[in-house]
Amino acid sequence: MATLLLVEDDEGLAGLLTELLELEGFTLLRARDGEEGLVLARSNEVDLVILDIMLPKKNGFDLLRELRQDKSTPVIMLTARGDEVDRIVGLEMGADDYLPKPCSPRELLARIRALLRRVDLERQTAVETTTSLTGVKTIGLLQINPKSRQVKADSRELSLTSTEYSLLFELVSHPDELLSRETLSRTVLHKRLQPFDRSLDMHVSNLRKKLGEGDGLPRIATVRGQGYLLSMPSAQMRNG
């Protein structure tokens, strides 16, 4: 069963979540402040982090920023109810999902399971992918190695979160094809698109920034009111 890291200083909420998650069979690590959370995240094989924003010693944003320097561990952030700024900032910094507080423990459990299923599916896909002898998919100057999950853009190695990698792989699998926001929300985030939910758009924005721009690189184009498509470079898409 997966190992989860809960970084939460609210003893009441932490106790409730700990009891529920352990009853569901998860191994749970608990940190009461941001500094302890970062140490535990880096020193243990953690499958997913549940991260509060308002924490002693180091807030959730700072913890996430430092964690993303060397780890792509999936992160669900707990934000103040209705605080859109916190949600947007968290997603921009690499959080995979968010849930407003006070949250339903059962909804959090459902989000955890959905995110873990997505990561597991990506790993299975990587193992099963045999696009060539090397398994490397080349799109102009973009290279994706499904086995190692390594992505390079014009020889630059990109540090992508699990969600960003899943989003890129989905777009690359449908070159020059319009994918609706609803479709991408289901296939990448594993949830139905809700009104005013900007999480998918923030993940697209983050991915665009990391891909950068160049003559030989594909571009993620927005089709207003419909969705996104991967506009291919002039060079033909090929498998290396």
Automatic annotation (TrEMBL):
Domain OmpR/PhoB-type: 134-232
Alphabetical list of PROSITE patterns matching this protein: OMPR_PHOB, RESPONSE_REGULATORY
DNA-binding region(s), residue ranges: 134-232
GO biological process, one term: regulation of DNA-templated transcription
GO cellular component, one term: protein-DNA complex
GO MF annotations in UniProt: phosphorelay response regulator activity; transcription cis-regulatory region binding
Ranges for domain Response regulatory: 3-116
Keywords: Cytoplasm, DNA-binding, Phosphoprotein, Transcription, Transcription regulation, Two-component regulatory system
SUPFAM superfamilies (alphabetical): C-terminal effector domain of the bipartite response regulators, CheY-like
Pfam families: Response_reg (PF00072), Trans_reg_C (PF00486)
Modified residue annotations for 4-aspartylphosphate: 52
Designated name of the protein: DNA-binding response regulator
Source species of the chain: Proteobacteria bacterium 228
Protein's cellular compartments: Cytoplasm
Domain of life where this protein originates: Bacteria
